Amino acid sequence: MRRSSVALAAALALFSGCGNPPVGPGGGVPLRFTVGEITFTAASGAAVATTYGFRLFLTDQPDACDAVAFVPNGVHTILELRVAPQASGATVAVVVPPPALLPDPGQSTGGLTEANAAVPMQAYDATDGNLAWTPNADGSVTLDSVDVGFLGVGASGLHLPKCTL
Could you tell me the residue range of the domain that residue 102 belongs to? Predict the structure, then answer.
């Protein structure tokens, strides 16, 4: 499995709802990018509460919650960020590189993985960057800004609905 930080230019203005395609400024192009050997087109997203904070997912599957709760058939790609909020309650985090499996408060860790069923084929770690979010009353999370190592330009305004695993 190859892991590296790869530059990518991606800009996104709005992502809404599980199963709804992300749209760019003016309601146009979905989020598409290539990182190393992985070509990714986001189709859905989800936010999952955890004991340390939350996990954020973007995937090429039609329902992100199902994609992370079950083993999808065939090849699938998932961008996952594990986020631990700051003890002060501030809703910003710094992306840290591996080997941090679980982030410390105020940190996020994760990456992009392409797998066939449950077998990872390729993966790229997020090695730096930052993100800011707004927690919503319904359990969803809005990413106010995200700039993750291989995302380059980053994205903003991503709405990721709540998912319970």
Answer: 25-160
Mean pLDDT by 10 residues, the chain (165 residues): 29 33 41 79 89 91 90 88 94 87 91 88 88 92 80 66 88
Question: For the chain, what is the domain count?
Answer: 1
pTM of the predicted protein model:
0.77
Q: Which of 144-151's residues contact partners 24+ apart within 8 Å by CB, and which partners? A: 144/91, 146/81, 148/81, 148/95, 148/110, 149/5, 149/6, 149/95, 149/97, 149/125, 150/5, 150/6, 150/7, 150/8, 150/35, 150/112, 150/124, 150/126, 151/8, 151/10, 151/33, 151/126
